[in-house]
Specification:
Blueprint (H helix, E strand, L loop, with lengths): L3 E7 L3 H12 L4 E6 L5 H10 L6 E3 L11 H17 L5 E6 L3 E2 L3 H10 L3 E2 L3 E2 L13 H4 L10 H14 L12 E2 L5 E3 H13 L1 H8 L8 H9 L5 E2 L4 E2 L16 H5 L5 E2 L7 H12 L11 H13 L20 E6 L3 H14 L4 E2 L20 H6 L1 H12 L3 E6 L4 H8 L4 E8 L4 H10 L9 H24 L5 E5 L4 H12 L3 H8 L8
Parallel strand pairs: 1-2, 1-4, 2-3, 6-10, 11-12, 13-15, 13-16, 14-15, 16-17
Antiparallel strand pairs: 4-9, 5-12, 7-8
Helix pairs in contact: 1-2, 3-7, 7-9, 13-20, 17-18, 19-20
Length: 525
């Protein structure tokens, strides 16, 4: 009978990971866990403590920091595979999972399914001939070297990319490989896993090539399996049910999706909402059951496409998801930097990016051309961003796969701050108190259209006290709102004084906060 070694990559929620590991090993299977090094030592030790009496649990031979689209995801997977292959000699199959996955069939059904055919199950389509990649760069993922993360260091990513293109620095793909692409959610036989591990040790040229490809978790295993395994022993599909919206975001499943999930011709599903407590319990109970028969109708994708298609035609049955009440998510934290001098907030954000892994976005509700990820078009309109602000920010959380995110807001937008503060997610506010010279206020008047280049100096001088009073009034309104978790740093304070509130705001050590605010030109005009 098949015995599975689940390969679990995760980065948060130790309690949920413990529950998932206990559930998946209950039927005699195994699990090897890679917990992202960004998740912290304390959280990882909580997982080890919670699973210390479970002999069917192993841990990756090394913990590393992972980033979406990076080689680190493949490397973390290999570390977990190495641990599983050594610790569980009776494992016949290795199944890739994330912390958001859950079984949608019984363990009995899953074992029978894997016993029926001696194949590897992995999406494996020709990289160049298939249309698997719908948007974004394609062959550029391979022929150029990618050292920076597009999500966290977007400017560096594209500067490096365009520099290589201008200089003609294309590289060759290893001659004996046919590059394949597909979903990273696969199930491979033990023999295939052993071949892959041997290959990684002997083909340093291939490892070096994939280390600087973009999104290699969609090409590395897919290519190696096709290279090492006879074609008739590969089933080109995934056993994990997942769908994507028009905005490139994974569809999230909630409590009322139970019957839909069970009817799909898949063994697992992704993503299950952290808030779908009832769904998780029902699926957990189902996994341990025996003798259950499943009626496979497999209508999930077609039904989703049908309903979203009607929405695009203006004939939808209900409001679009961003037009209904939305929340950022109970376990998320939105960190709002409020500053009238936008360049000061942007400098601070740049320093935060250099000293932490927290995603940071500049004035996304104020600047039309703010550097934002492509989310299907909603990001191109300030009006849409503001009108659908909670759903929009939730999409950004999903895009960055983060529980904490920094955004910059103008103090004029106090209603935005109030709205986010009323959400059931966690919110923090950091106000940057700046000094405003007459020269700065005059420039501000011209930038905002209150004055022009031909405005007489006398008229401008009469206008400045009013502008200064308005700025002070905006700041007073924020302080009078008495937001929970409100912090303030000031131009008149020392870096040591500013470090304490910044550390509380970001949830980082005070030493790191001091490094961030010690930039001598932070407040300069």
């Amino acid at each position: 009978m098949a015995r599975i070694a689940f390969i679990l990559l995760c980065h948060k929620d130790p309690e949920a990971i413990i529950d998932q590991a206990r559930r998946l090993t209950r039927a005699g299977d195994y699990i090897a866990i890679h917990f992202d090094a960004r998740g912290g030592k304390e959280a990882f030790e909580a997982i080890r403590e919670g699973l210390k009496d479970n002999p069917n649990v192993a841990y990756a031979t090394k913990r590393i920091k992972c980033g979406w689209g990076e080689w680190s995801l493949v490397e973390a997977t290999l570390y977990a595979i190495e641990a599983a292959e050594a610790a569980f000699p009776r494992a016949t199959h290795f199944y890739m999972l994330s912390g958001d996955c859950m079984a949608i069939k019984t363990a009995e059904y899953i074992h029978d399914y894997l016993d029926r055919e001696d194949v590897d199950v992995i999406e494996s389509f020709d990289f160049f001939e298939s249309d698997w990649i719908k948007t974004g760069i394609k062959e550029e993922r391979l022929i150029y070297r990618h050292w920076f993360n597009e999500r966290t260091h977007k400017w560096l990513f594209y500067q490096s990319f365009w520099m290589q293109r201008r200089l003609g620095l294309q590289r060759e793909i290893p001659e004996d490989l046919q590059i394949m692409i597909g979903s990273q959610w696969w199930c491979l036989r033990r023999r295939t896993i052993e071949w892959i591990l041997d290959f990684t040790r002997s083909r340093k040229d291939v490892m070096k090539f994939f280390r600087t490809t973009w999104i290699p978790d969609e090409t590395f295993f897919q290519t190696l399996v096709r290279h090492l395994v006879p074609e008739n022993e590969i089933k080109t599909r995934t056993l994990t049910f997942l769908m994507f919206t028009d905005y490139g975001m994974p569809v999230v499943f909630y409590n009322d999706h139970y019957d839909l999930l069970l009817s799909q011709d898949y063994l697992f599903a992704r993503k299950i909402s952290p808030e779908a407590k009832e769904l998780k319990k029902r699926l957990g109970d189902l996994f341990a059951a025996t003798g259950v028969e499943f009626q496979i109708s497999n209508e999930g994708r077609s039904l989703f496409n049908f309903l979203t298609g009607r929405g695009r035609d203006g004939r939808r049955f209900a409001q679009r998801f961003w037009e209904t009440e939305s929340t950022l998510g109970r376990d998320r934290e939105l960190l709002m930097i409020v500053c009238k001098k936008w360049h000061v907030a942007k400098r601070l954000v740049s320093r935060i990016k250099d000293h932490s892994d927290i995603p940071c976005l500049e004035y996304l509700f104020n600047e039309e051309n703010t550097n934002l990820p492509d989310l299907g078009g909603i990001e191109k309109s300030l009006e849409k961003r503001t009108r659908h602000r909670r759903a929009w920010v939730r999409m950004l959380f999903d895009y960055f796969d983060a529980d904490k995110m920094v955004v910059c807001l103008d103090p004029q937008g106090i209603e935005l701050i109030r709205d986010f503060n009323a959400d059931r997610s966690g919110t923090r506010v950091l106000e940057i108190d700046c000094e405003f010279t007459d020269d700065y206020l005059a420039g501000h008047a011209k930038r905002t259209g209150l004055a022009g280049e031909q405005t007489p100096e006398e008229a401008l001088q009469r206008l400045l006290p009013t502008i200064r009073a308005d700025i002070n009034h905006e700041s007073d309104r924020i302080r009078d709102a008495e937001f929970d978790h409100y912090e303030r740093i000031s131009q008149s304070s020392t870096p040591e004084e500013n470090a304490r509130p910044l550390a509380r705001f970001l949830g980082i050590p005070e030493e790191t906060a001091r490094e961030i605010v010690s930039m001598h030109y932070l407040f300069s005009d």
